[in-house]
Design goal:
single chain; about 500 residues; alpha/beta; D-Maltodextrin-Binding Protein, domain 2; five-stranded mixed beta sheet; 15 strands; disordered N terminus; transmembrane; transport
Length: about 500
């Protein structure tokens, strides 16, 4: 099942990349990228804020904020263009897709300008050049010297990163495991699911400095300059925008701003994060996660129910060419939605439809989950309608009720009573499934827990908190649903 999911994700990304690549020549001929950014007055930066000191979350004046040296680079570029910087957070392996589909104007996330990436996006000049290290548990530091010491073991790296690809190429008899979040990799390391985590040296230093249970060893990977350097990525064909950004990047390199200003400033935020790492200190972040989780769930159930009613009626339509066509379309929709993973559907709505309509991440998440829920609710309702005795319909018609009135006042109320437990189960399931939208940067509970883990360098505590919060929400919802179910049984 996991291999199938990864294959479908790769297929969606490939189709989207191919779609964007077909228009590259036309974009190059009519490049208005700089004028477009200056006209709207904002420069949207995509990043994955789980990679200190490049980019990470910090609590500033009581509010969670994305900080780090990459954010400082973004601010420098935006200032040079005379526009305001807007930072958009999402998983690392979604960044280039977001760039190609117009969700962000640029990507700054410690990204290496490899030849493979240059085929699909444009890069600025290098703004930083570092190296790579491997983070291990301090108690096991004596067991490992470099990448060649992990034979028979498992090391981890961020999915889509240079280190993930090179770890697979340059290690022998070593299993390489990829995860989208570095904080997840560190948690896996500390729980001994991994023997080491390969990452850039500044990030490794940040994690080791703030976690006494970790240690750092040299990697000794054979890497080119492009593999150990960071540059800003722009959409292919954005020549004017890249040229303008290069002026700021060249100033950063000439004045050595990364080492003199940006990294020391990031270090101060890292120290601030570890002053108070109690979960209560981050109650606002968890509350925000609960709020968005409930918004997504309630909206998705509401629109999913409406869609489900329409689909179920269409599937049960009989007679006539139009009704037959509707029945086939509804059946095809239900089967297709139920046969594809929700994660793929969320990505397609956000990135795929984003080529046509620029939908916000929250809206995209609600639409995708509503479309998915509607397919399942349609089957519940269809089953409920079929469970109503035919004699009820015949009695209603004998009293002079029309087909529509019979369905509305006789059949559907009884069907709703029969399927109420299934609808309740769908609501409970959606509370938990809403976590999927974290991959596109929606600030629900999973997303917020990743922020807290990145802030505090604590892996287990935030997970324990959100487990309790999910249980409270689902248990409360189930009690409320059971109350109404008992009321229906008494009617």
């Amino acid at each position: 099942m996991k291999k199938k999911l990864l294959f479908m994700l790769a297929l969606v990304v490939t189709l989207l990349v191919g779609w964007g690549a077909t228009s590259t020549t036309a974009q190059a001929a009519t490049d208005n990228s700089l004028a477009r950014v200056q006209k709207k007055g904002t420069l949207v930066m995509g990043t994955s804020p789980d990679y200190p000191p490049y980019e990470f979350q910090a609590t500033v004046h009581g509010k969670s904020k994305i900080v780090g040296m990459d954010v400082a680079v973004g601010q420098k570029i935006a200032k040079g263009l005379g526009v305001k910087l807007v930072v958009k957070s999402m998983s690392f392996d979604s960044l280039l897709v977001a760039l190609q589909t117009g969700k962000v104007d640029m990507v700054i996330s410690g990204m290496n300008p490899t030849p493979a990436r240059k085929k699909n996006v444009d890069f600025t000049h290098l703004y930083y050049q570092g190296g790579y290290s491997i983070v291990v548990n301090k108690s096991e530091k004596g067991l490992y010297k470099d990448k060649d010491s992990f034979k028979g073991k498992t090391i981890g790296a961020q999915t889509g990163s240079t280190m993930y690809n090179e770890s697979k190429k340059q290690t022998t008899d070593t299993k390489v495991k990829g995860m989208t979040s570095v904080s997840d990799l560190i948690l896996a390391l500390q729980s001994h699911k991994l023997a080491g985590v390969a990452m850039e040296k500044p990030s490794a230093q940040a994690y080791v400095a703030n976690n006494k249970q970790l240690a750092m060893i040299p990697s000794h990977f054979n890497l080119s300059a492009s593999d150990t350097s960071a540059a800003v990525a722009f959409k292919k064909g954005s020549t004017s925008l890249v040229t303008a950004a290069n002026k700021s990047v060249d100033q950063i390199r000439k004045q050595d701003l990364v080492n003199k200003d940006y990294l020391p400033a990031a270090g101060k935020y890292l120290k601030t994060n570890t002053v108070n790492t109690s979960m209560w200190h981050y109650w606002k972040a968890f509350l925000t996660g609960v709020k968005y989780t409930l918004i997504i769930t309630v909206c998705s159930v509401f629109f999913g129910f409406i869609l489900g009613v329409l689909l179920s009626l269409a599937r049960m339509a009989k007679g006539g060419v139009i009704k037959t066509a509707l029945r086939w379309l509804a059946t095809a929709y239900v089967e297709f939605i139920r046969g594809t993973p929700m994660m793929v559907q969320v990505m397609f709505v956000y990135f795929g439809l984003g080529l046509i309509v620029n939908l916000p991440a929250l809206t995209s998440g609600i639409i995708a989950i509503s479309l998915n829920s509607g397919a399942y609710i349609a089957e519940y309702i269809r089953g409920g309608i079929n469970s109503v005795d035919d004699g009820q319909t015949e009695a209603a018609r004998s009293l002079g009720l029309t087909n529509t009135a019979t369905l509305r006042y006789v059949v559907l109320p009884q069907a709703l009573k029969n399927i109420w437990p299934s609808l309740g189960n769908e609501f409970i399931t959606l509370i938990k499934d809403s976590s999927i939208v974290s991959i596109i940067g929606v600030s629900e509970l999973i997303f917020q827990s990743n922020i807290v883990r990145s802030d505090t360098y604590r892996g287990v505590a935030p997970i324990a908190v959100i487990m309790v919060l999910y249980f409270i929400m689902t248990f409360t919802a189930s009690r409320i649903l059971n109350y109404f179910e008992r009321r229906m049984q008494h009617d």
